[in-house]
């Protein structure tokens, strides 16, 4: 077949439409990138065999994959797997995607080792994620284990503890009706979810400076104590009511001295006719 016309595409000046003579009629045959046009020295009057046309289209497909890869890499660093998966998602062939990735590595546009180092530094500086989550994120991005381990060395045990303490202190504000013990348990679970191991999370909770004041702790006891009192005052009385309140507040991890103080005050109220009668009981 002979090329009869070459024209620039209207929507993309870097691509060209190739027309050939097919059974005596001019017909659109394929579009090609400017680089492929130059590579194949395409011009009006040039003859192409069916095999050559197939190779030409294959080269253009690879060029489009390369251009898509460059565009994907233009905004942020990516891993080899991310670029490959993106090209497959855009319906490029596995061969074209693999060649684009290898070319990007050759020109230093892709480097999983440097990506891992930069990723860890960014997470350290901009998030409070723990080592486990950061490592898992890198593994999901397809970074090789040796690169992951090398990059994770920057997040030392000491630094991880400091970051865990900081995260705990930010979230350590006692909520209304929450005991100090409940705060610690909540923070421990939060740190575990963020990717800190149990040893680091426990140490961070102990070291963090968020201890509630006596007044805050007592106010929380009042909130929870009144809540359980109102729930059971019409059903129980005396020692049974006191035991129910005591068990509830104990499960909420309030200090026993505050629990006893609340019961003493409710007992005084009952003696003055202000509520259900509560009788003294042995402390637990």
TrEMBL record:
Job of this protein: Modulates RecA activity.
Entry GO CC: cytoplasm
Q: What is the lineage of its organism?
A: Bacteria, Bacillati, Bacillota, Bacilli, Bacillales
UniProt keyword terms in alphabetical order: Cytoplasm
Q: Has the keyword Cytoplasm been applied to this entry?
A: yes
Occurrences of domain RecX second three-helical (ranges): 111-152
In which family does this protein belong, per the annotation?
Belongs to the RecX family.
Give the span(s) annotated as Disordered. Answer: 261-284
Which GO biological process categories is it annotated with?
Answer: regulation of DNA repair
What's the protein name? Regulatory protein RecX
In terms of NCBIfam families, this protein maps to: PRK14135.1
Q: Where is the RecX first three-helical domain?
A: 65-103
Localization, UniProt: Cytoplasm
RecX third three-helical domain ranges (all copies)? 161-205, 215-263
Q: Which residues form the signal peptide?
A: none
KW Disulfide bond (keyword) present: no
């Amino acid at each position: 077949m002979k090329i009869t016309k070459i024209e620039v595409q209207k929507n993309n000046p870097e691509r060209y439409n190739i027309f050939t003579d097919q059974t005596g009629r001019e017909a659109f045959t394929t579009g090609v990138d400017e680089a492929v046009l130059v590579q194949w020295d395409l011009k009006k009057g040039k003859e192409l065999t069916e095999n050559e046309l197939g190779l030409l289209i294959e080269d253009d497909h690879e060029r489009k994959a390369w251009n898509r890869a460059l565009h994907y890499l233009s905004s942020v660093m990516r891993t080899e797997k991310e670029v490959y998966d993106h090209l497959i998602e855009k319906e490029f062939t596995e061969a074209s995607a693999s060649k684009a990735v290898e070319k990007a590595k050759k020109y230093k546009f892709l480097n999983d080792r440097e990506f891992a180092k930069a990723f860890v530094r960014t997470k350290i500086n901009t998030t409070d994620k723990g080592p486990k989550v950061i490592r898992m994120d890198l593994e999901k991005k397809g970074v090789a284990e040796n690169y992951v381990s090398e990059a994770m060395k920057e997040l030392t045990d000491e630094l991880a503890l400091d970051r865990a303490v900081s995260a705990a202190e930010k979230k350590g504000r006692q909520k209304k009706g929450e005991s100090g013990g409940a705060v610690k348990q909540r923070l421990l679970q939060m740190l575990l979810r963020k990717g800190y191991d149990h040893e680091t999370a426990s140490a961070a909770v102990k070291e963090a400076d968020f201890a509630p004041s006596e007044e805050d702790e007592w106010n929380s006891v009042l909130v929870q104590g009144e809540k359980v009192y109102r729930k059971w005052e019409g059903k129980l009385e005396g020692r049974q009511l006191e035991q129910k309140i005591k068990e509830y507040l104990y499960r909420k991890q309030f200090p026993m001295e505050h629990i006893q103080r609340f019961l003493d005050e409710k007992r005084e109220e009952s003696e003055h006719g202000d509520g259900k009668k509560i009788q003294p009981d042995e402390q637990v």
